[in-house]
Structures are given as structure tokens and as C-alpha cells.
Amino acid sequence: MTKSSNEIEEGLAFLPKFDADGLITAVATDAKSGDVLMVAHMNADALRNTIRTGEAWYYSRSRKRLWKKGESSGHIQRVVELRVDCDQDALWLKVEQEGPGACHTGRRSCFYRAVPLGQSGPVTLEFRNADKTFDPHAIYAAPANKPRR
Amino acid sequence: MTKSSNEIEEGLAFLPKFDADGLITAVATDAKSGDVLMVAHMNADALRNTIRTGEAWYYSRSRKRLWKKGESSGHIQRVVELRVDCDQDALWLKVEQEGPGACHTGRRSCFYRAVPLGQSGPVTLEFRNADKTFDPHAIYAAPANKPRR
User: Fold this and answer.
1) Under an 8 A CB cutoff, do A115 and B14 touch?
2) Contact (CB<8Å) A115/B83
3) Which of B51, B113, B124 sits opposite A119 (nearest CB)?
4) What is the pLDDT of residues A9-67, one digit of tens each?
5) pLDDT digits (tens, 9 = 90+) for A111-145
6) Of B129, B42, B110, B104, nearest in space to B79 by CA
7) What is this model's ipTM?
8) What Cα–Cα distance (Å) separates residue A78 from each residue in A99, B61, B88, B118?
9) Do A14 and B87 touch (CB under 8 A)?
10) In Å, how far from its chain's centre is CA A80?
11) Which residue of A14, A32, A67, B87 lies most exposed, with the fewest beta carbons within 10 A?
């Protein structure tokens, strides 16, 4: 193990590793249930804003801009704890999700379909907790507001 | 919304979206505690093997090869549930982690450091659940066995 990888993995210096596009993967889980709400990305500004404000900011790859979660919908995420992984190329946000959901499709979590296990060949997904908890068309009035990544 | 994005987001066809490197992000959480254990990547073979066997396979970006979690350490992950997100570019594995930990540094989770919130400027991390639960040097005898991503 090089000194550098030892510093990254065992040290207390925060050395977030952004990818070639300047982004780092961020996983938001519900602080109460532990469910994964969403997987998104942050650039340096989004990370800085998240640390400073304690609310989740991301970078939208589709809209190519900084994005405060909930800026359109009001469904902000209060960050209870922010953690970084061993090689500092992924972030975990434990959040209190404000409002009925985190997903732009109108659901609490983006992960509302399961992949059945124990089989080969083509896969048919199965819905899980897939009932819509809000109407995304009512929340996101203009397409520009759609919180796509 | 185009028909295609509607199919991806609302349909039951499994259409995993691999990135330019042929990889998809996979988040493994502890099925009991809800803690995020690791963030890794799968290629098509890793995903196929995971679905078929019900045990987690990944693709190691550093070693550039398919990797069954636990193949060196015995610390396999039994997948309790596999889910895909709205735009099908991220996977969530709820797993039963065999053995003392998932992280190659010798800890249960890769996320053993917190980023303090509410501040600007340089950040000093804080250890969280950072006690080593196994000796990685004893488990991974040869450097080639080191389960880096």
C-alpha cells in the first residue's frame, strides 16, 4: 500500500476523488428506515454546499447544473450524517426526506422495482412499494424543473 | 416524457443502463441495519452472475476483472433483494454480509468516516464505527487478492 493510499484510506484528511467529469457518486438513504432513496452525483460545488448547509445538493448530469434537492418540489433532504468511503470516491448521506418522496416519478424512493433472483435469461421486474406518493406533473410544472440527473 | 423513458421508468422490462465503460453502480446495504456497506460496480457478467446465484459479484476497476465478493476472504454477500432505480442506471443490493466485514481495510462497512456538517473551508474527517473487525493482511495474503474496485 502506498503512503498516498494509506492517507486516503486511514487518514482524516478529506480528499474526495472526483471522476473525469468532476463528479462523485452520492447515495442517499432514509435515516429512519435505511432504505436507499436515490443514487445521484455531486460536483465540488454541490459537495461544498451540502457540507455548509446540511441540506443535500447534487449535480444534474442531464440538466448540466448544480441542483438543490427539493428546489422545485420542496422535497428537500436534511442531512443527518455524511460519510465517505475507504477510497473516498463515494459518499453516503443519511437524510430526513422532507415531503412525500425523493423520486421524480412520484415515489418515496427511486428503487421501486425488484430484479428476481435465481434465474438465467430475460428478466421481468417486479414492483415494490411502487405506489405514487405524489403527482410529479403537479409538482414539476415546467419540464425545466424536472429533477433528472 | 418519451415512450422510451416511460418504458425505462414505469415498465417491467429490465433494461440496465451500463456506462461508457460497460459498468453500472451497485450499492450494497446491510439487510438488517440498513447501513451502506459499499458502493461498487458491475459489468454485464457480474450482474448476470449475481442474478443467477443470488450472491454478489462485481467488476473490479483496478484489477480489471470480474470478482465474486468474498472469493478471497470468504466474506460473501447473500443478496436478499436486488432493486433497480427509476432510470435503471443504479442497483441496490440488500445483502446478508457473511463474516466480519465488507471493506478491504478490515471494517464492516467502507463508510467508517464522517464529514462534519455546517462549516466552510478545509474539512477534517471523524471516525465512525472505524474499529477493524478483521485483519486484512491475514485475509488477503497476496496483493493480487486485494479486493479493490
Assistant:
1) yes
2) yes
3) B51
4) 999 999 999 999 999 999 999 999 999 999 999 999 999 999 999 999 999 999 999 99
5) 999 999 998 888 999 999 999 999 998 887 654 45
6) B42
7) 0.92
8) 11, 32, 25, 12
9) no
10) 14
11) A32
